[in-house]
C-alpha cells in the first residue's frame, strides 16, 4: 500500500512539473503568433553605446547582461551582421548595446561616461522609412531563448518569398516586447567602424588569394577570370547578392560586396561620363564633316544650275537674233551686202 502511494505521489509530481513547464513555455510565448510585415521601424535615428563582438551568437547573453547592469531602464539592442550558415559561428560578428537616446534628443552625459568607462563606444544608427518588422513577447528570461527560434524562420521565409534586399538583422529589447527589424535601405549605414574595417580586411585577403591563384595558373586563367568578372555589371551583382543576404541571416559575403559596390559604382559613373563625352565629341566631329560635305555639294549644285540658266539665256538671245520668214531672209541679205561694202571701202 505504501509503495502504491509513493508511485502515485511521484506521478502526481511529474504531472505537476510537466504542467508547470508547459504553462511557463506558453507564458514565455512559445505559442505566440509571429506576424511579419513591412512598414515603419520600431526605432528611428538612435544613438547607442555598443561593444563589437565576434563569436557564436548564443554567447551574446553576457554582453546583454552587462548592458542591462549599467542602464537597467534603457532599451537593449543587438545587430547581427553575419549568417552562421555561411560563416563559421566563431567568426560571426555582431554588436550589443543600449539605446541612449532617440531622435533629436542628446544622451545623458553621466550615463555616457559610465558606458565609456566600461569600454563601450557611441554610434548613431540611421533612420529608415521601411523595414521588415515583427515582435515577440518578453515576459520571462525564457522569451529571449524562444524568440529567435520562432521569429527568424518566419522573417527569412517572408524575405525570400518577396525577394527583398534586407539586412542586417536587429533586435530591440524593451519591457514586455522584443522588436525585430531588418532595414530595407541604407543597410551599410548600420555597420559600425569595426565592422567596416573587418570587411575591408576580408576583401584584401580575397584579392590576395585571387592574385596568387592567377600567378599559379597563368595567363589563361587570368583571361578567363577577367572575362567573367567583366561581364557582370556591379548593379546586377549588387542586387543578386543583397537578395541572397535577405534569404538568410545577414550573410557576410553580400555585405562585403554591397560595401565595396558604392566605390565601384562611383568609378563606373566617372568612366561612363568619360566614354559618353568621348562618344559625343566623336559624333560632333562626324556631324561637322557631314555638314561640310553637304555645303560643298550644295555649292556644286548651285554652280551647275547657274551654268544651265546662262546657257538657256544665250540660246534665247541667238533665237531672237535669227530672223524668221521672207522678211528675215531679206534682212539677212542686206546685212551681208553692208558687210561687203564696208570691207570694199576698207580695201580702197
In short:
The chain is an alpha+beta fold. The protein has 2 domains: 29-193, Regulatory factor, effector binding domain (Multidrug-efflux Transporter 1 Regulator Bmrr, Chain A, Alpha-Beta Barrel); 199-298, no CATH class. It is built from 9 helices and 8 strands.
Tell me what you see in this structure:
The chain is an alpha+beta fold and 348 residues long. It contains nine helices and eight strands. An eight-stranded antiparallel sheet has the order 1-6-8-7-3-4-2-5, with helices on one face. β7 and β8 form a beta hairpin. Residues 198-233, 265-348 are annotated as: Disordered.
Number of helical runs? 9
Largest sheet: 8 strands, antiparallel
Structural class: alpha+beta
In N-to-C order, the SSE pattern is: HEEHEEHEEHEEHHHHH
| Beta-strand content estimate | 15-25%
Shape: elongated
Rg estimate, integer Å:
44 Å
What strand order characterises the main sheet?
A: 1-6-8-7-3-4-2-5
CATH architecture grouping of the largest domain: Alpha-Beta Barrel
* Averaged pLDDT: 74
Number of structural units classed as domains: 2
Number of strands: 8
State the fourth-level CATH superfamily of the largest domain: Regulatory factor, effector binding domain
The helical percent reads 55-70%
Q: Give me the CATH fold name of the largest domain.
A: Multidrug-efflux Transporter 1 Regulator Bmrr, Chain A
Report the span from N to C terminus: 186 Å
